[in-house]
């Protein structure tokens, strides 16, 4: 792994706490091994840090447009779900009373 990879992991470890995925032991101060991972001193579970870089748009207008579109889609899907529930209720009532 690269020096940059080490720097990104060190920065992430300095900004937040990590806990063991098995026993929930706080891993602050636990040294990292050569494979960019840690071994929980409490239960012995081995974990490895995975660094992922995501490219995002720096265009605020585009981001607002995407957010607005997703909100609109969310409202449409919510209305559709309520509509389907209403139809299902009507069908059940018809089946019960007729």
Task: Report on the biggest sheet.
Answer: 2 strands, antiparallel
Structural class: mainly alpha
Shape designation: elongated
Q: Order the strands across the largest sheet as they lie in space.
A: 1-2
| Annotation, overall tally of beta strands | 2
The total of helices stands at 2
Oligomer: single chain
Strand-helix topology:
Elements: H1 3-15, E1 37-39, E2 46-48, H2 60-97
Antiparallel strand pairs: 1-2
What this model shows, in words?
It is a single chain. By secondary structure, this protein is mainly alpha-helical. It has two domains: about 5-50, no CATH class; about 55-98. About 50% of the residues lie in helices and about 5% in strands. It is built from two helices and two strands, in the order αββα. A two-stranded antiparallel ribbon has the order 1-2. The mean pLDDT is about 85.
């Amino acid at each position: 792994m690269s020096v940059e990879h080490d720097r990104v992991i060190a920065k992430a470890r300095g900004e937040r706490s990590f806990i063991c995925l098995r026993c929930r032991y706080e891993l602050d101060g636990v040294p990292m091994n050569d494979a960019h991972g840690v071994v929980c001193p409490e239960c012995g579970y081995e974990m490895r840090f995975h660094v992922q870089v995501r490219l995002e748009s720096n265009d605020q207008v585009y981001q607002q447009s995407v957010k607005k579109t997703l909100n609109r889609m969310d409202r449409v899907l919510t209305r559709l779900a309520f509509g389907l529930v209403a139809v299902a209720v009507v069908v059940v009532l018809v089946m019960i009373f007729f």
